[in-house]
Amino acid sequence: MAESTCGLHLFWDEAETGYDFGPGHPMDPTRLALTMRLVESLGLTGQPSVTVRSAPPAGESTLRLVHTAEYVAAVKRAAADPSAVDAAHGLGTDDNWAFPGLHTASALIAGQSVAAAEAVWRGETPHAVNFAGGLHHAMPGQASGFCIYNDPALAIARLLELGAERVAYVDVDVHHGDGVQQAFWNDPRVLTVSLHESPSTLFPQTGWATETGGPDAGGTAANLALPAGTGDAGWLRAFHALVPELLAAFRPQVIVSQHGADTHVEDPLAHLAVTVDAQRIVAEAVHRLAHEHAGGRWIATGGGGYAVVDVVPRTWTHLVATAAGHPVDPATETPEEWRAEVYRLTRRPAPLRMTDGATPHWADFQDGGYDPADRLDQAVLATRRAVLPQHGLIP
């Protein structure tokens, strides 16, 4: 999209790096700092279409749009006494370590996503990005999967509170967007679409094609469970076989998306084989779909991603650049000052270019037909058969 149609509010606060479970935890906040440094080094924050903003932490009344009062109190208790284990609320567990800044850092990240939703809905900007967000596993009363407060769900809930009648949530993290699905399971105003590795091989063991929404919201949850080992061609084929058609039928007023970078072949916690180049293509596709179906209104978040140096900063910088209307040529060399910062923070060499060197191609599902013996096509067809008829579409 041209710059003239793409203004961006980039929500960032350096204090978001305080979302830090501690040494040895996979959710390393260095990935956030390195992303912002790469965004800056490539000159994106100096573009006239880009405004960098910081919002205050989400207050208790905002958090309670999704989370229970009991759970918010439990998070505060865990922050006050990080040594305690509160298994009932998922705090102090193997995944969700407690730390003194647990509530304040989590609320700050949530506040950025909520403010992004407000800015887009009120027409202050067509696009907003909070790459520190995307904490999609948190449940109303429980932490889960490194996620304390569910900022995408809170952003959606705020949009509904402001008067939105149709919100689409598109989640391309390698893990199922279970917390957001749960929050709006029986709400026909919210369409949740998740492409993720099969629950048979990956946490959180949910997100089957048969999960399609509650009794009052049939067809408003769509789950495409991808076989382990799926690479660029299959991932892009699956995305384009489901998401554009569903969004066209649902006619959202705004799109909220989650761009976990953990689909990447180098991610240590999952089993897909996607490249930075394919992740960039999907960000561009969501951007285009927002203009086609939602008046350009788009709120994008980050999410998972545990290849801290080689993957996450490049993937989310492409996301920011796409939303800004200033896409970065994949062949662009990463700036020397950024490589120096990578080494300073991690003692590891940085990637040299904004590409993995891939040129992804995929065969269109609808036009090219499907192979009934192919596990990916079986998964695509299962989801289309489960969801599309509920929207009056032919699977």
TrEMBL record:
A molecular function (GO) term: histone deacetylase activity
Xref: InterPro entries: AcuC, HDACs, His_deacetylse_dom, His_deacetylse_dom_sf, Ureohydrolase_dom_sf
SUPFAM superfamilies reported for this sequence: Arginase/deacetylase
Assigned keywords, A-Z: Acetoin catabolism
Pathway assigned in UniProt: Ketone degradation; acetoin degradation
Domain Histone deacetylase: 25-322
One Pfam short name: Hist_deacetyl
GO biological process, one term: epigenetic regulation of gene expression
Family in the record: Belongs to the histone deacetylase family.
PANTHER family cross-referenced by the UniProt entry: HISTONE DEACETYLASE HDAC1 (PTHR10625:SF10), HISTONE DEACETYLASE HDAC1-RELATED (PTHR10625)
Protein name: Acetoin utilization protein AcuC
